[in-house]
Amino acid sequence: PVTDGSRELHSLCAQLEFLLQFDLKEKRSFFGQRKDYWDFLCQGLARCRQEHEGIHFVTSLDKLKTPVGRGRAFLRYCLVHRQLAESLQLCLLDPESLCEWYYARSPFLSPKRRAEILGSLYELDCITFHLAL
Q: Which residues form the RUN domain (predicted)?
């Protein structure tokens, strides 16, 4: 199993975060806080499901104060529960939402790149992650 001490885990999470932040449009909340991929994931999953267990878990953690921290916790939760590919795929279903959140260079706006990314993420489902949540 992959644990918190794994160098590969840190590299994987950094790459996932890079993908999710690459060419992300700058958006601000009502109070001026910069929105991040966490907000994109929340909005995408809210459209597709009643409530995602990972979103509920992360929002229940009082220690997490920033969107980036919440996004990182969500990625870890999804890896542990083998839900990363499915969760991201649900967020990528709506082309209008993708255009609202990402500029044209984002790999998520390319059907071919999107399929490659999701295919790789689905391969992670066969790996066991033992991470501190």
A: 3-133
Q: Domains in the chain and their CATH numbers?
A: 2-130 (1.20.58.900)
Cβ–Cβ under 8 Å, residues 102 and 24: yes
- pLDDT tens track for 8-44: 999 999 999 999 999 999 988 777 778 899 999 999 9
Res. 65: pLDDT tops 70: yes
Q: Give the Cα separation of 40 and 132 in Å (integer).
A: 24
Place of tokens 């990625």: 75
Give CA–CA dist 14/16, Å, rounded. 6
The answer to whether the beta carbons of residues 36 and 68 sit under 8 Å apart is: yes
Whole-angstrom Cα distance, residue 79 to residue 3? Answer: 11
Token code pair at residue 27: 């958006």
